[in-house]
């Protein structure tokens, strides 16, 4: 894989990246093995089909209940957080979120940030932004640390370095970590990463984390992790900043329990993760650990666009488990980097158009076989195939067509020529006489069929009418049409 830093890429680059991934046999073999392993682990965790479906029904109901009351719950969450001494910031765009975090860092004259796993911070490309302003941000999740050393983006939302082999990591540690000897022993590699990160927690001025779920009634942030880095990032430094998408809020703390059960079993095939961190405010009087100051940045970044549309709102039900990726035949073959976005795979295809606009992501909704596997395994029942079809429709809609909730980049794939072809096709099949005339002309003039037929012939042989139609053949045998 390339070690070039990845940023959001235009649609043309997606096709080039996908072709490059398909030509990489090592990458395809690695992803095939990893996805098969994750699918098997998930299946073991849900042996009772009835229990799974009941839990999925509950998870869907909890997420839909929260989204139905989202504006109200966000206000309730803010009130609860402020009452517990947390400073709340609202960011409509990545630029606003980055500026807020930089202002906090400057207020504390911070030069070093230690970061637990946070897809929201990846989404706003926080590491690069802080580096441009003289603040070093170190990833403490081992997978994120590996891709940061390699100057890459995560290729999976749960397992960022899943595209790396033991040999890749061994070479990387040898080159990037002082006194690290080459070894492919997994335990030794883990210890090398642990030693490299241990002092970063103590030396950091600010700890930054993501948020898996936030309970509006108590103002509690719920963080799920396996390594303990999230707990260290949020308790050792004097300042803790949590970055969360606005859709992560739920009404009650008790609602998070079934969601966490779905998350851990769907993501990594674990009955429960090693750490559940429940954070409710900064250090209180008499407490001996925890941050002395805490901030929460509530990030929109296109989420209100999805929220405004009744059908597309289901996109925000996602709990970021990655199960849809693990079961997607497209993601399995091209990996996460081909997408060029923070969220790859099926969930990325339906959420990235809201974060970046359809004009920047028009090819993603079409990068699907619509086999339905993603929808079948989604723990909160997001109808991903239906949403992909809807986004395809919006990408091919006329840019000037008035709709109730226009998407940014509407009409990104619109083609006037294609519309003319479909209008002609629809008209020909709607009127019997016109259809018969078209059929007669197509069979007699098939030699003039163009060899290039728009997008069809990019991957297929040209369509060419048969010398005689079925109706002609039936008529020659004395059969009525």
Structure notes:
About 50% of the residues lie in helices and about 10% in strands. It has about 475 residues and is an alpha/beta fold. The chain has a 6-stranded parallel β-sheet, with helices on both faces. Strands 8-5-6-9 form a 4-stranded mixed β-sheet, with helices on both faces. Helix 20 crosses helix 21. The termini are far apart. The model is unreliable at about 1-5 (pLDDT under 50).
Task: List the keywords.
about 475 residues, alpha/beta, six-stranded parallel β-sheet, four-stranded mixed β-sheet, 10 strands, disordered N terminus
Q: How many DSSP helices?
A: 22
By secondary-structure content and strand pairing, the structural class works out as alpha/beta
Within the largest sheet, what's the order of strands? 1-10-7-4-2-3
Low-confidence stretches: 1-6
Q: Into which percent range does the helicity of residues fall? A: 40-55%
Could you tell me the mean pLDDT? 92
Apparent shape: elongated
Spatial separation of the terminal alpha carbons? 58 Å
Binned strand content:
5-15%
How many extended strands?
Answer: 10
- The rounded Rg comes to 26 Å
Q: Specify the biggest β-sheet.
A: 6 strands, parallel
Present the secondary structure layout.
Layout: H1 11-22, H2 25-45, H3 49-68, H4 70-83, E1 86-91, H5 94-107, E2 112-115, H6 119-123, H7 126-132, E3 136-139, H8 142-149, H9 166-176, H10 186-203, E4 206-209, E5 213-215, E6 220-225, H11 229-235, E7 239-245, E8 249-250, H12 256-267, E9 275-279, E10 293-299, H13 303-308, H14 323-326, H15 329-334, H16 345-356, H17 358-361, H18 373-377, H19 384-396, H20 416-430, H21 432-444, H22 470-476
Parallel strand pairs: 1-10, 2-3, 2-4, 4-7, 5-8, 7-10
Antiparallel strand pairs: 5-6, 6-9
Helix pairs in contact: 9-10, 16-19, 20-21
């Amino acid at each position: 894989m390339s070690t070039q830093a990845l940023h959001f890429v235009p649609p043309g680059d997606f096709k080039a990246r996908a072709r490059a991934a398909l030509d990489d046999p090592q990458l395809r073999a690695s992803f095939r093995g990893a996805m098969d392993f994750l699918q098997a682990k998930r299946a073991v965790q849900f042996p009772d089909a009835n229990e799974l479906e009941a839990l999925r029904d509950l998870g869907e109901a909890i997420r839909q209940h929260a989204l139905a009351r989202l504006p109200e719950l966000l206000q309730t969450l803010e009130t609860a957080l402020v009452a517990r001494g947390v400073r709340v910031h609202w960011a409509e765009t990545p630029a606003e979120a980055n500026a807020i975090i930089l202002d906090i860092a400057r207020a504390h004259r911070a030069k070093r940030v230690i970061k637990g796993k946070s897809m929201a911070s990846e989404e706003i490309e926080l590491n690069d932004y802080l580096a441009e302003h003289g603040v070093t941000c170190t990833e403490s999740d081992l997978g994120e640390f590996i891709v940061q050393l390699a100057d890459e983006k995560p290729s999976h939302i749960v397992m960022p370095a899943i595209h790396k082999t033991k040999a890749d990591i061994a070479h990387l540690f040898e080159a990037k970590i002082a006194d690290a000897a080459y070894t492919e022993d997994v335990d030794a590699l883990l210890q090398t990463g642990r030693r490299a990160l241990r002092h970063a927690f103590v030396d950091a001025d600010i700890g930054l984390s993501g948020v898996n779920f936030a309970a509006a009634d108590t103002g509690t942030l719920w963080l799920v992790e396996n390594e303990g880095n999230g707990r260290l990032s949020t308790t050792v430094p004097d300042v803790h900043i949590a970055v969360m998408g606005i859709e992560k809020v739920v009404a009650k703390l008790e609602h998070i329990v079934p969601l966490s059960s779905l998350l851990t079993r769907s993501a990594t095939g674990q009955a429960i993760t090693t750490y559940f961190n429940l954070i409710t405010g900064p250090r209180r009087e008499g407490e001996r650990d925890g941050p002395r100051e805490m901030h929460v940045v509530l990030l929109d970044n296109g989420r209100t666009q999805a929220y405004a549309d009744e059908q597309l709102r289901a996109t925000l039900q996602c709990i970021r488990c990655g199960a849809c990726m693990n079961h997607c035949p497209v993601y399995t073959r091209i990996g996460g980097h081909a997408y060029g976005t923070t969220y790859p795979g099926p969930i990325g295809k339906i959420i990235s158009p809201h974060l970046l606009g359809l004009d920047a992501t028009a090819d993603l909704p079409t990068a699907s076989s619509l086999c339905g596997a993603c929808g079948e395994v989604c723990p909160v029942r997001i109808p991903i195939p239906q949403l992909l079809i809807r986004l395809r429709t919006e990408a091919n809609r006329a840019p000037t067509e008035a709709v109730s909730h226009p998407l940014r980049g509407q009409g990104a794939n619109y083609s006037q020529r294609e519309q003319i072809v479909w209008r002609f096709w629809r008209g020909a099949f709607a009127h019997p006489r016109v259809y018969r005339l078209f059929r007669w002309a197509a069979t007699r003039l098939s030699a003039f069929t163009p060899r290039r037929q728009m997008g069809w012939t990019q991957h297929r042989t040209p369509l060419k009418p048969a010398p005689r139609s079925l109706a002609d053949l039936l008529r020659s045998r004395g059969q009525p049409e």
